[in-house]
UniProtKB/TrEMBL annotation:
Family of this protein: Belongs to the group II decarboxylase family.
Quaternary organization: Homodimer.
Keywords: Decarboxylase, Lyase, Pyridoxal phosphate
InterPro entries: PyrdxlP-dep_de-COase, PyrdxlP-dep_Trfase, PyrdxlP-dep_Trfase_major, Pyridoxal-P_BS
Species, as recorded: Oncorhynchus tshawytscha
Protein's UniProt name: Glutamate decarboxylase 1b
Length: 451
């Protein structure tokens, strides 16, 4: 497949067309690229790959077979229509009437979240597009202390300033406390600032927490604020009749981020920003470049989607998603989601009362299961002592290092706030079985018993 890429780069692969050194270099690159790709695919298909990052899948060839941009209909008519059809279906699943609204695929969840902030600013202060931030009062964004860092990054990149991104307190399971949101909105208003935007997280990165969207929506309506739902990680649960209740109230959101390349297993990159109001994406981002977006073309120029985006050239991300949806069907996605959440519950039930384990929070909301493994040498120590915390902090990194060196399995770890390093088990691998969960537990205990 790599050979297919090089003709587009005008790099000769036939030895008599290039110097011996270039020919050797290209052969060297191709050999190691193919070896690396094979390792990534093998890793993605390994059931014991249980890392927080999604498993690589053997669909990489779709990238080399779609070396197109899709900023206008005439450049990529089939892919433009595929994207519009798929985005409409996603909006229907969210619950917006007849799938009305707008949307676009972006380079990832961070950019999709950035779009939501840009659109919110344009909705309430359209003059900022031409006159800059000086045309608006001091604008404030609100998001959970457990939310993805991309909201804070958007605040910095778009000129709000990271100090104008207010972090909201959460309960013990990582969900935003609505009363804290309202109190902080009132505090901002008292200072003379303008509360603009609230991000509700549906599937937080660490805990897999779902903020109470309905209660947050009530507050947003009360104070005339934009409500965005970051469903980058949790969006796949919308496909499950068993679990979509965790998104209760999502249809009240003004915008939603949904990353099929996460829980649904679509190859990177595949992220959508979905907007309830039709036309606002183009209003916010269009610059009407005359060499691309002529209004007098022979077809309906509403199919020219490029002016909605902050990019010009835009990779065809829809093809692999459309192919997978056609192959698996909505029921296939639902079965995958349900299986992964069942496995996370199986893991939680197996270790919550098992000697040597302590849970970070009670009951998984998503596939995130967070826990400490406590080696025998630490079990008799005072848990609040400095020595205990320092030693426990080193346990997860040491066990993961031994896992990586032995090549048996792969899981993630991290600290959170005042909590020392814990294992963060995230199940999205379609090949995983209960036996792989059993193996993981045995492996943690085998590697950690002498720490």
């Amino acid at each position: 497949h790599l050979h297919l890429v090089f003709p587009f780069l005008s790099i000769p692969l036939v030895s008599h067309l290039c110097s011996p050194s270039l020919s050797f270099t290209l052969s060297f690159i191709l050999f190691f690229s193919s070896s690396t790709l094979k390792q990534e695919i093998d890793l993605g298909l390994k059931p014991s790959y249980l890392s927080p990052t999604q498993a690589p899948l053997p669909h990489t060839h779709t990238h080399t077979h779609t070396p197109f941009s899709q900023f206008t209909y005439e450049i990529a008519p089939v892919f433009v229509l595929m994207e519009q059809l798929t985005l409409k279906k996603m909006r229907e699943i969210i619950g917006w009437p007849s799938g009305e609204g707008d949307g676009i695929f972006s380079p990832g969840g961070a950019i999709s979240n950035m779009y939501s902030v840009m659109i919110a600013r344009y909705k309430y202060f359209p003059e900022v597009k031409t006159k800059g931030m000086s045309a608006a009062p001091r604008l404030v964004l609100f998001t959970s202390e457990h939310s993805h860092y991309s909201i804070k990054k958007a605040g910095a990149a778009l000129g709000f300033g990271s100090e104008n991104v207010v972090l909201l307190s959460t309960d013990e399971r990582g969900r935003v406390i609505p009363a804290d949101l309202e109190a902080k909105i009132l505090d901002v208003k008292q200072k003379g600032y303008h509360p603009l935007f609230v991000n509700a997280t549906a599937g937080s990165t660490v805990y897999g927490a779902f903020d109470p969207i309905n209660e947050i929506a009530d507050i947003c309506e009360k104070y005339n604020m934009w409500l965005h739902v970051d469903g980058a990680w949790g969006g796949g649960l919308l496909m499950s009749r068993k679990h979509r209740h965790k998104f209760s109230g999502v249809e009240r959101a003004n915008s939603v981020t949904w990353n099929p390349h996460k829980m649904m297993g679509v190859p990177l990159q595949c992220s959508a920003i979905l907007v309830r109001e039709k036309g606002i994406l183009a209003g916010c981002n269009s610059m009407c470049a005359g060499y691309l977006f002529q209004p007098d073309k022979q077809y309906d120029v509403s199919y020219d989607t490029g002016d909605k985006a902050i990019q010009c050239g835009r990779h065809v991300d829809i093809f692999k998603f459309w192919l997978m949806w056609k192959a698996k069907g909505t029921i296939g996605f639902e079965q995958h989601i349900d299986k992964c959440l069942d496995l996370s519950q199986y893991l939680y039930d197996k270790i919550r009362n098992r000697e040597g384990y302590e849970m970070v929070f009670d009951g998984p909301q998503h596939t995130n299961v967070c826990f400490w493994y406590i080696p025998p040498s630490l079990r008799g120590m005072e848990h609040n002592s400095k020595e205990y915390r320092e030693k426990l902090h080193k346990v997860a990194p040491n066990i993961k290092a031994m896992m990586m060196e032995s090549g048996t399995t792969m899981v993630g770890y991290q600290p959170q706030g005042q909590k020392v390093n814990f294992f963060r088990m995230v199940i999205s691998n379609p090949a995983a079985l209960q036996s792989d969960i059993d193996f993981l537990i045995d492996e943690i205990e085998r590697l950690g018993r002498d720490l």
